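Q: Predict the assembly, please.
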Amino acid sequence: MHELSIATAVVDEVRPLAGADVVRSVTLRIGELAAVVPEALEFAFAVAAEGTALAGAELRIDTVEGRARCDGCGREGPTGMPPVLWCEACARPLVLLSGRELEIVRLVTAPGPGPVPAAPAASDKERSPTRR
Amino acid sequence: MCRSVDLHRAVLARNDENATALRRYLDRHGTIAVNLMSSPGSGKTELLELLLTRARARGTPVAAVTADLATENDARRLARSRAPVRQILTDGLCHLEAGMLQARLEPWLPEGTRLLFVENVGNLVCPASYDLGETLRIVLVSVTEGEDKPLKYPAAFGLAQAVVVTKSDLGDAVGFDRAGFLAGLRQVNPHVPVFETSARTGAGVDGLLAHVMACADGRAPHTPVLARQHEGLLHRHAPGTATAPGAAP
Ligand SMILES: [Zn+2]
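A: Predicted assembly structure:
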């Protein structure tokens, strides 16, 4: 499933931005027409985040409706899914306004455990990120 | 104390950057890449073998890479065309990515290659999201797969710059609803050029090759409606333009 590749890409993009902090949540904007299944992505994200600063982070997904406009008759509305990108009345292609988004838009972090020697936490065992 | 950062970073920004780099690499070599996507069993390999053979016959330096989850059958079959062919095993990954492709091309791409066909992994979901630095993206579908395919896989068909119908010689036998297919295709990708081909009879192959060559020689390929938001309204992310993590309330 390519949701795992997408989730891995999210983790790889966010990790350098988090620095030494731990990531509490990541918010994505995903268009209806981006060919990503949110439920599959949530599951894949949990897997991809394991052993990284994103482990246990919440994935928030803002879904963006697919919308299009006809420059012939001026009609504007949702594209539906599968999308209708053709105006039957005017016999011309529509203009896509939204729906292809696949972006990281927000990151909430908290200070990481830091270098202070503390009692070894159970969640802090050494793990090498196993990434294909 | 939590820190919240607003950013605006494409999830696939890294692949987009790698695709831009790959496009430049191909440009430097005078090579045009054609990204071929289809479901398994669409007859893609058979058609590609014929395209390679005919391109060679016309004196066009042509090469192909074929991506597969595991086997090497496709590469062996394509090698019969006598064109340089390279297999890329994706080790279970369901699509090719630009960085992976460039790493395989660099030590191998024969000098002077004009046309490089890239046979993507056989599925119509995952590969659609990944730009491979191609000049032309072609989606293939056989008449045996049914006329509702464009509506079942709107991202793949919606982003295609050309659509190739394969095994057209079987169309009547399997009751392919040509009008229904074209109507569905127009719904998700108005005006996309369609080529009906048969690797068995050779029908339509020269027309397809002529179209590919025209695009290689500078003719602007079709721009799908679905691709236009991506290029126009969403800004494309140039390398290093990710919003710096500034403190936000
Ligand atoms: Zn209209």
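The radius of gyration of chain A is 20 Å. The interface with chain B takes residues 1-2, 5-6, 9-10, 12-13, 17, 19, 21, 24, 28, 33-36, 68, 81-86, 92-111, 132 of chain A (CB under 8 Å).
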